[in-house]
Design brief:
mainly alpha
């Protein structure tokens, strides 16, 4: 079933149990624009409008516009979702030592080198590799800053 952006806005708004007026207040988008999108009078909106609505509805912009981010290659170790999960809360991942368990945090120069390597991995599409190293990198970054 192909749904319009207005259908998705309405469904998400109703799921969040908020009115159009409340969504307008939270998003900074006029209630008239929200009504027109939901009624199908308008089929699209400016990117800043869509970002405001996505933020107010607490969803990714890709979900709101109906174009989720995907990659062409599937990997056994996970891809974009694994990467997103790794970034969200590294302390809750199994096998990642807490900051108290970190014996020798890297110095700022070493951590910066690791960040550059992780950035190269990201741009090369190595999401699985990045997902496995990012939690530790984030933990080390917090330790290096201290």
């Amino acid at each position: 079933m192909n749904t319009s952006i207005g259908d998705r806005i309405r469904a998400l708004r109703e799921f969040r149990d908020i009115t159009q007026d409340e969504l307008a207040r939270r998003s900074g988008v006029s209630v008239d624009t929200i009504r027109k999108l939901e009624q199908g009078v308008r089929e699209s909106a400016r990117i800043n409008t869509l970002r405001g609505l996505a933020r107010a509805l607490d969803v990714q912009l890709e979900r709101l516009v109906g174009q989720p981010t995907v990659t062409q290659q599937l990997t056994d170790g996970g891809g974009l979702l694994a990467l997103r999960d790794a970034v969200q809360d590294p302390g809750s991942l199994p096998g990642v030592p807490s900051e108290e368990d970190l014996e020798d945090p890297p110095g700022p120069a070493e951590w910066a080198r690791q960040v550059r390597a992780a950035t190269e991995t990201y741009w090369a599409g190595g999401y699985s590799d990045l997902a496995s190293t990012l939690p530790g990198l984030l933990r080390d970054g917090r330790a290096a800053v201290r």
